[in-house]
From TrEMBL:
One of its GO terms (biological process) is xylan catabolic process. The keyword Iron does not apply. This is Beta-xylanase. Belongs to the glycosyl hydrolase 10 (cellulase F) family. InterPro entries: CBD2, CBM2/CBM3_carb-bd_dom_sf, CBM2_carb-bd_dom_sf, CBM2_CS, FN3_dom, FN3_sf, GH, GH10. It comes from the Bacteria. Residues 463-575 form the CBM2 domain.
Amino acid sequence: MIIPARGARPERTAVLAVVAALAVPLVVAPIVAAPPAAADAPLRVHAAARGKFIGYAAGTSPLANEAAYRSVAASEFNQVTAENAMKWESTEPSDGNYTFSGADQVVAFATANNQQVHGHTLVWHSQTPGWVQGLSASAMRTAMQDHIATVVGRYANNASLVSWDVVNEVFEENGNLRSSFWYNTLGSSYIADAFRYARAADSNARLCINDYNVEGINAKSTAMYNLVRQLRADGVPVDCVGFQGHLAIQYGFPSQFRENLDRFAALGVQVRITELDIRMQMPRDSTKDATQATYYRNVVQGCLAVTACAGVTIWGFTDKYSWVPDVFSGEGAALPWDANYSTKPAYTAIHDALDDGSGPAPDTTPPTTPGTPAASGVTSSGLSLSWTASSDAVGVAGYDVLRATGASGGSFAVVGTPSSASFVDSGLAASTTYRYQVRARDAAGNVSSLSSVASVTTTAGGGGPGPSSCRVAYTISPWGGSPGFTAGLVLTNTGTSSLSGWTLAFSLPSGQAITPPGWSATWSQSGQAVTATPLSWNSTLAPGGSTTIGFNGTHTGGTSEPTTFTVGGSSCTVV
Ligand code: G3I
């Protein structure tokens, strides 16, 4: 992929050293970190020491009226986003009549407390007045240009306001562009236009696209990735990508969060977590609090691990003022402070994750090596494995089960990630030898050595469920102007029994190669032979069930498609 060269932009004078560093276009010199923080220092001190921001979404009413709110806001955070005060309905409620009282209030508080401000949001389908929504195409484009010029222009010379959400939530969950009044009236061009209008109004501010349910690798985040890549290839000034982070403990932590940040960062954009909150089904209890704390820690650690990640903004900070209970019936307690401004385990988790080392030492010790897997219940298409569990100083989080086909040769790929020391493999070919190894992981990401190898041969066919039946739809999308492509595959189980721990294999045409990591599967390539093994969430396909996986690749001129796909050695129908 070719990204147009971007000239360095003059930077505004920033209120914080870290702010100044963050304003430099990315792929940049490392951020100059502040001095190490004392262990009990507030979040903002630890964040600055790591070269990141830690922020909150501000409500104008408590900011004006509550000393306790102001105290936490000022002492704990070095970044702020107005929760509602910069939205269109707040700043231009009727055509051409601008009101900035709430927006100015947030900016003034931020300036007084050395906090950088992120402007939220210019073009959104929600909280935009009815008068905009009913305009003709030409009038709507003019209104958008005027709104962006006026709102962004107001703060263009303000040292605190460093970035804007230019467009917000432009995708449907399936990755299509959202059928909003913007899209339905103006078509997809409104997105590029909005960015260009914003750049014209402030040549220094970072310009972001922001969305929810894009934290992991999925159809929506992949659509956002492709849009950002295309916009930048077209010279549209997209500088940054915001991952909102409205999570819930009952839905699990987003799959491949870190890998997702990494792939966007590789496009040359800044990434940031913009609206983090982690809700739960009420009532709260200590188990839910602990899970929530782990999720907060995971998010902060993910951002710390990615150089291009500027920081994390929490959507509010106290449960006293959270949008969650109003929208999700029976859910709440999503923030690190409770309604009485007492901190929760989530606060400690964020604090410890940001700590520069003066707090508890990080866990760098891997679990012990697990025992050699032993097979039982071997049939023509499946078997059970169990092994002696690993131990770990903190705790074993789970295992990776790796499988290679054949008595020798071939490469091992992960086919399962059980949380305890056993695994059921299925979808295997009859009379075939498979080799298995396992390794253990802990919560800090330390991985043990691989166990010894166990070889198992499935029985001859006839008694068991038989080889898997599958269908593959393969779509290749060449990139204009560069020797790359995106390949999307839909794998469907057309059999009558569940397909678990599947391995999809095919041969890439000559001259084509995968650019790791791909998404929604673990991909590997040896010569032209490619295998994809599932992640935990798509490792079992019920009869009729399907999963969408994919990868980016390079080619040397040809973008023909593979012709044969197998699962567990059996050919799939190709459509
Ligand atoms: O200001 C009026 C007030 O006059 C009226 O009495 C009251 C009655 O309900 O409503 C007030 O407006 C509310 C507004 O927040 C300001 O408090 C709206 O009803 C309420 O719907 C609105 O909710 C906001 C929501 O965006 C709107 O979609 C939430 O506070 C805000 O946290 C939320 O934030 C969004 C991000 O902007 C984008 N990403 C998702 C995130 C969560 O939904």
